[in-house]
Each structure stands twice: as C-alpha cells, then as structure tokens.
Amino acid sequence: MSSSIGQNNLENQLDEMVRSFVQEKLETIMKEEMNQYFEEHPELKNYKNGSYKRHLDTKYGRIENLQVPRDRENAFQTEVFQPYQRYEQWLGETIITMYQKGMSTREIGRFLERILGHAYTPSTISNITDIVMDDIRTWQERSLEKRYSVLYLDGTYLKLRRDDVANEVVYVVIGVTEDGYREILGFYVGGKECSTGWKEVLRDIHTRGCEEVLLGVFDGLPGLEEAMKEVYPRADVQRCIVHKVRNTLNQVRKKDQSAVAEDVKSIYQSNSTDEAHKQLEAFREKWDKKYPKIAKSWREDFSALTAFMAYPSSIRPMIYTTNIIERTMKEFKKRLKTMNSLPSEQAVEKVIYLVSDECNTKWATRKLRGFKEAAPTLQQMFEERYGSPTETQVEE
Predict the structure, then answer these.
(1) SS in 3 state form for the chain?
(2) pLDDT bucket at 391, cuts 50 / 70 / 90
(3) What does this protein do (predicted)?
(4) How far apart are CA 299 and CA 342, in angstroms?
(5) Which of 195-204, 229-238, 241-250, 354-363 shows the lowest per-residue confidence on average (mean pLDDT)?
(6) How far apart are the C-alpha atoms of 269 and 272, rounded to whole Å?
(7) Which of 17, 193, 324, 354 suits 2 as a labelling partner, its CA being 20 to 30 A distant?
(8) Beta pairing class for 147-161 and 165-177
(9) Which residues pair with 217 in a beta bridge?
(10) Rg of the chain over CA atoms, in angstroms?
(11) Is the pTM of this model over 0.85?
(12) Is the pLDDT reported for residue 20 higher than 80?
C-alpha cells in the first residue's frame, strides 16, 4: 500500500516538473516573440506593459498562471496559443455535441476527467455550452419563407427548475415548404399549454415572414383552432385523426372497440367529404343509442377532421395526423431524458436548439413523400387564396 502511494507521489512530482518546464519554455518563447515583433516594427511607438495570467490546457496537463507578455496597445499577439486554440475548439465542440446527445453536465465532466486527466465542473461545462446562446437568438429571430403548405403544431411538457420543479410546456412549430421540405420554424419554452400561448407563437411565426399557410395540423387543444384562424384566417385546420380515434376508443367498451374502430375508419378513409358524410350518418345510425356522446362529437368536429380530403391524395397520409411532429417531440425527450429536471430555461433551449438545428440540416435534402406530385395543385390553392406572388407584391 505504502509503495503504491509512494509511486503515485513520484508520478505527480514528475508531472509537475514537466508542466513547470513546459511553462518556462513557453514564457521564454513568448518573450522572444515580442522582442522580434518590435524589431520588425520599429515604426510602432509602443512599449511593453508587463504580462497577464491565463491557464492553458496542453497534452502535459493544465498549466496554471502562464505569464503572457503584453504591450500598451495590444498590438502584439503571440502565436504560441494557435495549436492549443485548436485543442480548445475541439474540446468545446466535443462538449456541445455530448450535451446535444443528452448527456448531463456532470456526466460530461466525469467523461472529460477520464480522458483528459483533470476535472471540469458542471458549471464550467454549462459555461462552455453557453456559446450557443447567441446562435439560439439568431436562429429564433431568423426570417422564414413566405409560404408554407402545412404547419404542424404540438406541445410537450418537461420538468423545469425555477424556484421549484414543475412541468412546463415547449411549444414547437414545424412547417412544410411549397416544395415539400420540413423545417422546425421555432420553439417556445414556458408556462402551461393554452390557446393564448399558441396565439403568441403563431403571431411570432407570422411576424418573421410566414404570411401564407394552407393547412394547420394539430391535436384537440380547446381554443387552438380559433387561435390558428385569428392569425391565418385563410388557412384550413385539420384535427389529428389518430388522437380523435384514440380518444373515441377510450370511451367505448372493450367488446365494441374493434367494431367502432372499423366504422370510424370508414369515415376518415373516404375519398371525399361527401362520402365521409354518408359514412358518418351510417355510424350515427349504428352507434347513436349506445354511444350518443361519441356520435355527437364526430358530427361537431366533422369539418376539422375531414379538411385533409380537399388536398391531393398523394399527401393525405402526411396531413391527417400529427405523427411528423410527434416523432420530433420524442427525439427532444430522448435527448433530455437523462437530465431528470432541467436547471434553467436556457438549459432547455440549448438542447432543443441543437436537436432542431440537427433536424433541419438533415431534412433540407429530404423532400416529404407525395409533395412532388401535389405541387401543381398546392400552387393553385395558394393562388386562389392569396393571389399569385406578383399580385401579392403589388398589394404590398
């Protein structure tokens, strides 16, 4: 045991000697660099101004209190740090990538200590990831396309610590361009999901340039349809069929669930709204006495459940459900799952932004199925509702 301790002490002493030697040589090199700089620039009326201290991570470990020479006007810049700046850049990018993949700041700190030999506290890791905050603000304020064929709206809850830990919503909007490419347009953190919150989200999307929309797709949150119509009065609204069917079957006795599922499928798989309406009447005749609330609910929501039928058949499977945005929400939660509760709103924004940026980069070259065939019809629908691009410009 004592020999092991002695060996460790010897190794620590050797490490310290190596770092001390490297520090001495680096400081000598920087002094010579400054002398050479002033010999090459005799015209500069400048003079030395002592030094400042900084630490430097090297392959020999961290060198503390490295003395860096400086002049009064900061004209001299040492080249000693260039290879180490590349090291720091790699380290910063690695930390951000690990954070993006859902590792907590403590997990990242422990990982870096194992591979680099010195500790990084959670607060240090958090400070390093703070460099993305400027990127987040720029991304959140970026201009959007004028026309989006579809907007998908959804919210998910995360545990967020402020004074205490509570569930708070993250509003997310995904748009599909005229050409059929997906894009996360924005995310908004805080509070409880409500129609007022969604109205503010949609107003922000509109202010940033998304002025013309054909269809909004979302689940059955009360007031969301009215919020959509207030900001985009010419857009159709589509309630998610999958949510509606799921809620319907939850109200049905188990022995009837299979039959009811087949009968509602005949409604939303119709080829036209006229056919869907006939299937709805058949459903009411069959089930109205046993499940009157369900039949009434489908009748009241009929127009919002069948709006997708006015669109080309090639994209209908994509627009009668919120599956596209729900898959993205699952990815957000997967990345955040290891963090239990998020320490701040900024911590949420960092992860959501990094995942969003990754998704948008991936989606930029992947057109959604069916939109190529639907393009002429969608273009005609835009012109019927909003006029041609040239007409819109004249009105503006």
Answers:
(1) CHHHHHHHHHHHHHHHHHHHHHHHHHHHHHHHHHHHHHHHCCCCCCCEEEEEEEEEEECCEEEEEEEEEEECCCCCCCCCCHHHHHHHHHHHHHHHHHHHCCCCHHHHHHHHHHHHCCCCCHHHHHHHHHHHHHHHHHHHCCCCCCEEEEEEEEEEEEEEECCCEEEEEEEEEEEEECCCEEEEEEEEECCCCCHHHHHHHHHHHHHCCCCEEEEEEECCCCCHHHHHHHHCCCCEEEECHHHHHHHHHHCCCHHHHHHHHHHHHHHHCCCCHHHHHHHHHHHHHHHCCCCHHHHHHHHHCHHHHCHHHHCCHHHHHHHCCCHHHHHHHHHHHHHHHHHCCECCHHHHHHHHHHHHHHHHHHHCCCECCCHHHHHHHHHHHHHHHHCCHHHHHHHC
(2) low
(3) Required for the transposition of the insertion element.
(4) 42
(5) 354-363
(6) 9
(7) 17
(8) antiparallel
(9) 152, 238
(10) 30
(11) no
(12) no
Instruction: Determine the distance from the C-alpha atom of residue 204 to the mean position of all C-alpha atoms in its chain, rounded to a whole number.
Output: 16
Amino acid occupying residue 180: G
Lookup: tokens for 393: 């410009």
Compare 312 and 46 and report the one with higher pLDDT. Answer: 312
Q: How far is 75 from 71, CA to CA, in rounded Å?
A: 7
Torsion sign (Cα): 346, 350, 351, 352? positive
Average pLDDT (369-387) is: 94
CA 396 to each of CA 31, 197, 213, 236, 391: distance values in angstroms, whole numbers, following the listed order: 63, 29, 17, 23, 9
- What is the Cα–Cα distance from 368 to 349, expressed in whole angstroms? 27
Question: Is the model more confident about 102 or about 50?
Answer: 50
The length of the chain in residues reads: 396
pLDDT category, 331, cuts 50, 70, 90? confident
Residue 147 is predicted with a pLDDT of 96
What per-residue string of b and e applies to 289-324 under the rule 16 or more CB within 10 Å gives b?
eebeebbebbeeebebbbbbbebbeebbebbbbbeb
Which residue's entry shows tokens 């998704």? 359
Q: Can you tell me the distance from the alpha carbon of 312 to that of 369, in angstroms, rounded to the nearest whole number?
A: 12
